[in-house]
Amino acid sequence: MKHWREYFERNRVRPMPDLPPVRAGWAPLLARSLAVFQLGESKGGRLASEIDALPGLDSDYKAAIKLFIAEEQRHGDVLAACVGALGGELVKTTWTESLFLVARRLAGVRFKLVVLLAAETMGLAFYRGVITRLPDLPLRAALCEICDDEVQHLRFHGDAFRGDRGFRYAFYAVVTAAAAVVLVDHRKTHRALGIPLAESVRRFRDHVLAVGNDLSTTPQRVQPASDMTAA
Q1: Are the CB atoms for 22 and 12 separated by under 8 Å?
Q2: Do 223 and 155 contact (CB within 8 A), yes or no?
Q3: First and final CA of the chain: distance in angstroms?
Q4: Confidence band for 225, pLDDT divided at 50, 70 and 90
Q5: CB count, 10 Å around CB of 18?
Q6: Long-range contact pairs involving 173-181 (C-beta distance under 8 Å, separation at least 24)
Q7: For residue 116, pLDDT beyond 90
Q8: Most distant CA pair in the chain: distance in Å?
């Protein structure tokens, strides 16, 4: 896990994006959707402290987990800037976040990582769908950067749990429920951006299968983000 710790350490020095205001008919709905994801991305501080209590983990993996959580919280800051650029407001609680909170507390740290992996898979699928409809703006570039990060996050979790059947089966159960929740909760945003339901369902399915298949393969080093599940 040393290469992952070094990867996350390199990412820490990146500046925040400068996002000018975006005026479009779909802006309010996209702002609301990104505010929902922002709430989830800004969490994780508790897990950073709980990971130290797990036995049998090397110091590089523990450090990488903490750096990964910090990068997720940076995503929360980037999404907050996106929401502001779209003229929206951040939210303090949502019914979807409440569901994920309950799921994260059902079991120990291991299950929390399952829930995080499911949430990242759905986030990546959602952001990539949005990107296909956005004009070439700094907002789009910011979401593309988050997508690149999320691909590596999925590989990071894969390197930690690849070949673990229990983890993979738990992932399938949680991510299936998460996909249904996201598709329902953000259907108006998809509609406003001209993304048909069938396209969203197909994209979400493909991302779930890609991650599930990756959990079954041999470990791999950090690779370009473009080669895992095309938009």
Answers
A1: no
A2: yes
A3: 28
A4: very low
A5: 9
A6: 174/103, 174/114, 174/115, 174/118, 175/117, 175/118, 175/121, 175/122, 175/208, 175/211, 176/208, 178/100, 178/118, 178/119, 178/121, 178/122, 179/122, 179/125, 179/204, 179/205, 179/208, 181/96, 181/99
A7: no
A8: 52
Distance between CA atoms of 174 and 159, rounded to whole angstroms?
Answer: 19
**Is 210:228 a contact under the CB 8 Å cutoff?**
yes
12-34 tens-digit pLDDT: 999 999 999 999 999 999 999 99
Residue type, 137: L
Of the candidates 143, 9, 1, the one whose C-alpha atom is nearest the C-alpha of residue 60 is 1
Separation of alpha carbons 11 and 69, rounded Å: 12
DSSP secondary-structure letter at 229? S
pLDDT for residue 86 is more than 60:
yes
Read off the tokens for 123: 């986030």
> Of 67, 47, 45, which is closest to residue 1 (Cα–Cα)?
67
For the chain, domains (ranges, CATH) are: 2-15+23-227 (1.20.1260.10)
Cα radius of gyration (the chain): 17
Q: What is the 3-state secondary structure (H, E, C) of 125-193?
A: HHHHHHHCCCCCCHHHHHHHHHHHHHHHHHHHHHHHHCCCHHHHHHHHHHHHHHHHHHHHHCHHHHHHC
Q: Is 25 strand, coil or helix? A: coil
Element (H, E) at 217: none
Would you place residue 198 in the very low, low, confident or very high pLDDT band (cuts 50, 70, 90)? very high
Token couple for 140: 């789009």
- Going by C-alpha positions, the residue among 63, 68, 67 that lies closest to residue 52 is 63
